[in-house]
Design a protein that fits this description.
Shape: globular
Order of helices and strands: HHHHHHHHHH
Oligomer: single chain
Structural class: mainly alpha
Radius of gyration: 15 Å
Largest sheet: none
Number of helices: 10
Number of strands: 0
Distance between the termini: 21 Å
Length: 198
């Protein structure tokens, strides 16, 4: 599989989500969001997992928006803050309530340890792909040709340094959050040893 084989939904809401991500994310976090979609979609396509490409793309673009200064919350974990942003964004896009809720769920669940594919394919795929891109988990499931192509088009830049700083800040301020558990579990070390940076 190559980059051009990946399904990219071409809808106005996807373009708007990409515009929001570009406006509020650093270049490193924007590229991470794009790669999160690509790894997820490619994994699903190769394994015959049916998924809603528009929902997955919008959720991928907005899944880390709660880490940005403009949308950081001091009361809820960053993934929950991102879920709220997604709900509001999708309301503005005219999505029905059920679809807004799905975008919020997918973003919140990307931090879970496991999201059952049969219950939530988009949540499963985003949890899997963000784990690949951040901590290097299951990167062997990324086809070599696709990996090289994606990293050339959307390089990792300063992702390790930036994300480690973000998640450490989140974990320090919100120790009971999943980010806090990730920090205590050594995510910074896993990030430093991610094969995608090799």
């Amino acid at each position: 599989m190559r980059y051009d084989d990946v399904i990219f939904p071409d809808t106005p809401v996807c373009g708007a989500a990409r515009e929001v991500a570009t406006r509020y994310h650093s270049a490193s976090l924007l590229n991470h969001s794009i790669r999160a979609y690509v790894w997820a979609a490619a994994y699903a396509q190769e394994r015959g997992i049916a998924f809603d490409a528009e929902l997955l793309y919008v959720s991928s673009m907005l899944h880390d928006i709660g880490l940005t200064a403009e949308f950081d919350s001091h009361t809820v974990p960053f993934e929950e803050a991102g879920g709220h942003v997604a709900w509001a964004f999708c309301a503005g896009a005219g999505w029905p309530v059920e679809r807004r809720v799905r975008a919020s769920e997918v973003i919140i669940r990307h931090m879970w340890d496991v999201v059952p594919v049969e219950e939530d394919p988009e949540g499963h795929l985003l949890e899997l792909s963000t784990g690949m891109d951040i901590s290097g988990r299951r990167t062997e499931d990324i086809p070599a040709g696709l990996r090289d192509d994606v990293l050339r088009r959307h390089p990792r830049l300063d992702l390790v340094k930036e994300f480690a700083a973000c998640v450490t800040d989140q974990g320090t301020r919100k120790p009971s959050s999943l980010a806090g558990g990730f920090v205590r579990g050594g995510i910074a070390e896993r990030m430093a040893n991610n094969p995608l940076d090799g």
